[in-house]
Automatic annotation (TrEMBL):
NCBIfam families: PRK07940.1. GO terms for molecular function: DNA-directed DNA polymerase activity. InterPro entries: DNA_Rep/Repair_Clamp_Loader (IPR050238), P-loop_NTPase (IPR027417). Its EC number is 2.7.7.7. Keywords: Nucleotidyltransferase, Transferase. The lineage of its organism: Bacteria, Bacillati, Actinomycetota, Actinomycetes, Micrococcales. It comes from Herbiconiux oxytropis. This is DNA polymerase III subunit delta. It comes from the Bacteria.
Amino acid sequence: MSVWDDLTGQSAAIEVFRAAAESSTRKAAGGVVHDTPDSMTHSWLVTGPPGSGRSNLAYAFASALLCRNGGCGECSDCRQVAARSHPDLAVLATERVIISIEEVRRLVSASQFSPSVARYRVVVIEDADRMQERTSNVLLKALEEPPERTVWILCAPSEADLLPTIRSRVRSVRLRVPSTQDVAALLVKRDGVEPELAERAARESQSHIGMAHRLATNDEARARRAETLDLALDVRSVGDAVRGAARLLEIAGADAQAITEERDAQERAAALRSLGVEPGQAVPQALRGQIKTLEEDQKRRATRSLRDGLDRILTDLLSLFRDILLVQLGAVSDTGGTSGGTPAAPGAPVVDLELVNEAIRSRVLEAAAGNDSSSTLAAMDAIAAARRRIAANVAPALSLEAMLVTLADSSRHAHRTG
């Protein structure tokens, strides 16, 4: 067993990090190490789409650097890295919308210390794309003149999410989207999910490993996703759009609450316990400031969780209209061998792509037959616009209403011409 075993669909990236860790071990032992693209360097950037396993790969690499056995996955070093408690591991994993400059300053200060028990001090920043420019400039100074035995590992969706000056000082490793089969196999192996459910969860999550796990193990998450798709398919009027936007907000809120509620309770209990406050006992006046700080952090995390929940809903809606468009373009066939929309051009090669929402194939075919591809593209543009507006802090209700009004207009057009 090793720290690389639970990673899926990223063999090329794993080989890069494995080779770097092995070269660092040879160098520490006094061996000859040639300067190659796979040799060790002091700063790394792991990029890839959400759910591709960026942070998992970063911590596997950290284990390989901090473990006395090169990342065995079983020793105390590897267990401490997994628990984020290793003395030579520093982690910045914000639950806020942005990473604050104070957090990065503290991390930069900690990076200056020599390792206490391992060969390296490893610093991991998850969601490095959440740094504003002035915050990134604080990090830039640390990357320009790093201590000899400090290794930085940044994680972000893409290189473009970071400043060019940051990108020029890191070695980038790009992850690909894992295949549906890889993610399904992981769910079966790691979580004991039934193969059929694992495949459906992997497909509907579009190979997002975290969401696939949630859909495979949580009945309520699957029910909320199904309701979201039904709502989008059934919107017919402006009134439907307004009511639908309110319901989508409720669904996103319930999803976010399900993710954060249990964690919030555990954090509060742990904080009270560490402060010596017994269960049921009133918090002394002198300690209320610390509890208030915790509650404010949890509120900020709830804001981010709600935004993430809305983005998941919009991603699911995009997958629905993507399926509809594929049927209309003849890239997905009906069970009888003919598409539900515009057939492929005569003489064109037969293509039958996989539906993301195979479980509601009949509704997808019905929606494709009742509309045209231009209306479907307009709907997809409206969903993409809603994502941009919400990311830019436009009121979610207004963004969702505008999106659903466009979907309603498309439905009315289909009924007028049908």
